[in-house]
Design goal:
This protein is mostly helical. Among the domains are: 46 residues; 80 residues, Rossmann fold, CATH 3.40.50; 39 residues, no CATH class; 68 residues, no CATH class. Helix content is 47%, strand content 8%. It is built from 13 helices and ten strands. The chain has a three-stranded antiparallel β-sheet, with no helix packed on it. Helix 1 runs antiparallel to helix 2 and helix 3 packs parallel to helix 5. The longest helix has 30 residues. It is extended and about 85 Å long.
Length: 344
């Protein structure tokens, strides 16, 4: 681990930044990774310690027979089969190849035992932890071939309101979301609890909102100055002079940007010039995009909770037990990364 820290110090000492730092850091890490892994395995062996991957590897080694062509079940396999006649694996879309290998050898390979797996590939979110959706798809195919049974799909949702489900059905029924050739399907579901409802008197409010993030264009004074200094500038000095008055201004969407720059130009831009300035002033920083999404979500939450109004003005959450105004703890936001939550 000290080697990795030394790499970081080396990069800092030469003041590398941006993509150059990322590329060099990746290369240096690759150079020391093999030695680091070897040292780590030796340390674990000396101290008698195991990590999560070690535990899975050791179990797989004890349940998979050395000769897969007719070898008798291993002692661990016999012990597990004697105690359990059936295994039920929930959230199966979040398993990896090794976990599937373990369950397959323990239960699916035995005619006297049953293996039931429950999962939804559309909810596979643990790839960062080794989960592999292709393992799920292969397992589904293997189980169908081994048992001759097709998957059973739940047709009703008991957690969501009818309006929400209608919106989701309409959106995800479009083929572009889940092409058949990928092996992931969407089946419309009905509402199992029609009494669930979020009653909102706000005119025009839908059960589902789709946020489309328009591209952001920022007229940067630095970019204008850099173009003036360039030996072969991308645009003419005449165009750059016209953009001086817009320095620091931001536009959302291609049409809004072109419309916003039109008043400062006393000439028409050619198609090639339009393409160049769109590319030049496009602000493609991911952090800005994340912040804009966070602002939209925060505004929606404020509107739902009627910030600045009494609680009686809020939407009413209705279930089988009672009705009550929407509360802060009723709202949940899902993130890909914790940093996105911090921004919100």
């Amino acid at each position: 681990m000290a080697a990795v820290e030394d790499c970081e110090k080396l990069l800092q000492s030469y003041n590398f930044s941006g993509s150059a730092k990322k590329i060099l850091k990746a290369w240096l890490t690759q150079q020391v990774l093999e030695d680091v892994c070897r040292e780590l395995e030796q340390k674990k062996l000396e101290q008698g310690k195991f990590d999560f991957d070690d535990l899975l590897r050791l179990v797989e080694e004890q349940v998979v027979p050395p000769d897969t062509k007719g070898s008798a079940a291993t002692p661990l396999t016999r012990a597990v089969r004697k105690k359990y006649a059936c295994a039920v694996v929930d959230e199966f879309q979040d398993t990896d190849r090794r976990q599937w290998s373990i369950f397959r050898h323990l239960f699916l390979e035995s005619p006297e035992h049953r293996l039931i797996v429950i999962g939804d590939p559309k909810q596979a979110i643990y790839s960062f932890r080794g989960a592999d959706i292709f393992t799920y798809l292969q397992a589904r195919k293997t189980i169908e071939e081994k048992t001759g049974r097709l998957p059973f799909t739940l047709k009703k949702n008991y957690r969501s309101s009818e309006k929400l489900l209608c919106g989701l059905n309409q959106i995800f029924s479009e083929e572009r979301w889940f092409p058949e050739e990928r092996g992931v399907f969407f089946q419309q579901v009905g509402c199992g609890k029609p009494e669930l409802e979020l009653k909102d008197q706000t005119p025009g409010r839908n059960a589902i909102h789709l946020l489309e993030l328009l591209p952001q264009f920022t007229v940067s004074g630095k970019k204008i100055a850099d173009q003036r200094k360039a030996v072969n500038p991308k645009v003419s000095l005449k165009i750059l002079a016209a953009f001086d008055s817009l320095s620091g201004k931001t536009f959302f969407g291609k049409e809004a940007f072109l419309k916003g720059v039109k008043p400062v130009l006393d000439f028409n831009l050619s198609e090639s010039d339009q393409s160049v300035i769109l590319s030049l002033f496009l602000d493609d920083q991911a952090e800005n995009a994340t912040r804009r999404f966070a602002e939209a979500i925060a505004l929606e939450i404020k509107n739902l909770l009627r910030i600045g109004f009494t609680k009686t003005d809020r939407p009413v959450w209705k279930n089988e037990e009672a009705e009550r105004p929407l509360r802060e703890q009723d709202i949940c936001v899902l993130f890909r990364k914790s940093k996105e939550g911090e921004i919100l």
